[in-house]
Amino acid sequence: MDFYTLLSIITSLSFLYIGFINCIISNQISIVRLNNWYVGYLGFLLAIEGMTLSSIYILESETMQNIYPIYVTGEFFITINLLLSDLKVKKLWYVISGIIALSFGIEACILWLSEQDPSTGYGKIISHLIIICFSAFLLIKNIKDLKKNNPGVIVYAFLFLYYSVTLFLFMVMDQLTEQNFSIWIMNNLLNTVLYVSFIYTFYSQIKWSLKSNL
Fold it and tell me: How many CA atoms lie within 13 A of 72 on its CB side?
């Protein structure tokens, strides 16, 4: 692992941790609370990173493929429910999202147990496409609220950007094997930008609440 890759990982993890702490603090002191899926999203990613680091440095595992089924299931379920919560949909939609997320996890487990790379399945591509579509829809729906107090709009914009670009990077990774380190650096930078958007949203939420108290 070269210096720039390590730096990108440390930067991404640092902003993820800062974002998670800020999310908890903002929901404690803010008048308008963001829904719990924001906390769940960052908390889940923080847990996955903790599991990954534990596997590498404590269990000395050479592969993270055993974690991937948990990752692909949880990431889709939490992210799509974060988006659904703003649409005020019926509970049936949450059930459907859970079933779809579970199917992604089952596919990844089957590939893993078959000694294949679980990330090569269709789950990652389909989950990213669904998240892209929902985030784009919410972004268009709320575009007029950019100048108003709508904390989620910035997050929706960067979720759309993140999942669109990472899907493209995932699809071209096999064709650019010699540049895999560069792709991972770009992915970590995208992670960092996404976490910064969460931090900015939480900061704006606190700032708006303080003004409302004046």
Answer: 29
pLDDT tens series, the chain, 214 aa: 577 778 888 999 999 999 999 888 876 765 555 668 888 999 999 999 989 888 877 777 767 788 999 999 999 999 999 999 888 888 999 999 999 999 999 999 999 899 888 888 899 999 999 999 999 998 888 876 555 556 678 889 999 999 999 998 887 766 655 556 777 888 889 999 999 999 988 887 777 665 655 5
Rounded Cα distance between 91 and 81, Å, is 10
Token output for 47: 């847990």
3-state secondary structure 59-90: CCCCCCCCCHHHHHHHHHHHHHHHHHHHHCCC
179 near 3, Cβ under 8 Å? no
Distance CA 130, CA 67 (A): 22
Compute the residue count for the chain.
214
- Enter the pTM of the model: 0.88
**All domains in the chain, ordered by first residue:** 3-208 (1.20.1070)
Residue 159 token pair: 């979720």
C-alpha 201/C-alpha 22 separation (Å) is 10
